Amino acid sequence: MNNIVYLDHSATTPVHPKVITAMVEMMEEDYGNPSSLHRMGMVAEKKIRKAREQVAEVLGVKSKEIIFTSGGTEANNLAIRGIALQYANRGKHLITTTIEHPSVLNTFKELETEGFTVTYLNVDREGFIQIDQLKEALIPGTILVSVMHVNNEIGSVQPIQQIGELIKAFDHRTFFHVDAIQSFSKTELDLSQMKIDLLTISGHKIHGPKGIGALYVNEKINLKPQLYGGGQERNIRSGTENVPGIIGLGLAVELIAEEQKSKIDKLRKLKAWFLEEVTKQIDDVKINGPASIEDIYSEKSTPQIINLSFPGLKAEVLLHALEDFEIYVSTGSACHSRNSEPSHVLQAIKLSGRELESAIRISLGYWTRREELEYLLQHLPGLVSELRILMQR
Ligand SMILES: Cc1ncc(COP(=O)(O)O)c(C=O)c1O
To answer: Has residue 1 got a pLDDT over 70?
Structure first.
């Protein structure tokens, strides 16, 4: 196989060719500022309106409830800070989990320095929060709960429907934010059926461009802006819109929605087959996250993320050894891989030191083919045993 085998889709995805074409057209021809009053401005504005409708339709919400941002990180910051600072008069208690993405965790850490109290829910060894712990954590004065849908490192899927119902039964005024960046297009998500007030998605995880994201904000919420300026995005997020990015995101969402059902089934089968093979062909492999075959075929596990430890070797060395064969995987999440700190997610699920240092993430995409995983399996067992022998010396 001469082509590259890209298995790092949870870090980012290749952009869909139709998305590239639409974006280039925007940059070459329809480059007007959507705030301009002339025809070119109107064209850009109309295209943004269409993208907003595309995203809203797939999420099952109203288009005015979609706010475009510079990506998932900004959308998470806006959701969390926007609620905390706007509704602090009702209470200053916030709840999240220990396995959130840094764009959520570090936002909560910052709010702690600004006088808020945060409860961080632990997860079990497969990466699930305990509903009872959430029940205990909710107190009068809890204004926001933020729980990610799918974890980006180990693929555990939190029961967000149940969590939403629990929160609202406790107090309908407590807001619920979901980081759905890794779940969008990989799990069923119909917001009209769920008690979610705010939800984040990001373009580059779904074959759209980088640097564009969207936040769903229930129309009843009065979110405190985090950027002030010309009043774009209903005054919630000022700044001239990233028109090509927005158009790219809208189209990516629409394209992916058409394929979703068949691709989810395909990915689930690929994942189950790969895990069966890898555990057969390599001794002492640990599957991190939901691991049983029932879980892999259930709603508890996301179909695209596989996290494995090969105790006795260093993940980074394996990553580079695979790279020599043009196979691209990651250690932990991409956000951590340049960071020498061990992954907070793998620590939260209580991996041993040897499991922690040898964990790699293989993340599949809509276009991943079985032959690519077969190619990986041609090299992985040999490399693992070579590296284990080297480590023993
Ligand atoms: C779960 C999760 N949240 C947030 C982000 C950040 O999104 P963005 O890269 O668009 O800022 C990521 C990206 O890795 C992610 O996986």
So the answer is: no
